[in-house]
Amino acid sequence: MIRNVLSIAGSDPSGGAGIQADLKAFSARGVYGMAVLTALTAQNTQGVTGVHLVPPPFVADQIDAVFADVRVDAVKIGMIANAAIAEAVAAALARALTAATANGRSIPVVLDPVMIAKGGAALLVPGAVDVLTLRLLPLATLLTPNLPEAAALLHQPVARNRSEMAAQAEQLRALGPAAVLVKGGHLDSDDSPDVLAVADGLHWFEAQRVPTKNTHGTGCTLSSALAAELAKGASAREAVAVAKDYLAGAVAASGSLTVGSGHGPVQHFHALWKDGA
Fold it and tell me: Where is the Pyridoxamine kinase/Phosphomethylpyrimidine kinase domain (predicted)?
């Protein structure tokens, strides 16, 4: 059975991040993708120049419409933008998850706390951080912050080493998510380790840095691949291993694309497109 996965996130018209990256990652990982828009952005590989927010009640209407008709096997949450949208998403999702539980189903939720775009533009207003923490974190099966995002959620300094990464992963898991993956790409080191905090402890995933500027949408792509694997029944640890391997291939093949002059996108379909076909 092909699984159905819903993304709740913002749009990137240049196609490298946001909803567009999510749908590409879903397709590449063999699941059927659906999308609820929280925001429209004007952006390209060089940065974000504008954001237009979707009214919170209409965000909730989109979520309700999908769940009223379609079997949802996993949810990925990306750009939330502000507190009102976070509240609307949390309320609509809580209704849907409660109904699923009553019918004997469990729907995994991957929360990627998108706060800052690759070019530095803010994608989450400061006042929304606490609402996201209090309302959405308890709904999450897997939280996937990078180092600055983890620090912002905890109101702490950014982790500088593995020990601090591990401590923050465990602190975030104590706030409600079943699992937390803290991504170490911002560490000042030659490698890029990630740490997964789950009920049975910590698990490290090692990776070498790829010398490329084509990293637009890597967080969106990873979290979407994680949602796809969880929808198929993988454990958090299994999903992270598969999704990281997929993302590594997508980054390594990004040079086959010629999209923009800034931070280019990854090649989501690296395993499917051969010789440009």
Answer: 12-267
Report CA torsion sign: 149, 155, 159, 163: negative
- Write the pLDDT tens digit of every residue in 173-220: 999 999 999 998 767 776 778 999 999 999 999 877 777 888 888 999
Structure tokens at 170: 């465990």
| Catalytic residue list | 183, 215, 217-220
Q: Which domains, ranges and CATH numbers included, belong to the chain?
A: 4-256 (3.40.1190.20)
- The Cα-based distances of 153 to 92, 135, 211, 221, 237 in angstroms read 22, 12, 29, 21, 23
Are 205 and 196 a contacting pair, CB within 8 Å?
yes
Half-sphere exposure of 110 (CA within 13 A, CB side): 33
Cα 263 from Cα 44, distance rounded (Å)? 9
Comparing CA positions, the residue from 105, 53, 58 lying closest to residue 79 is 53
Considering the entire predicted model, what is its pTM?
Answer: 0.94
Token digits of residue 220:
């969106």
Higher pLDDT among residues 81 and 101, named by residue = 101
Amino acid in the structure at residue 248: A
End-to-end CA separation in angstroms for the chain: 27
What pLDDT, in 10s, does the model give residues 67-95? 999 999 999 999 998 999 999 999 999 99
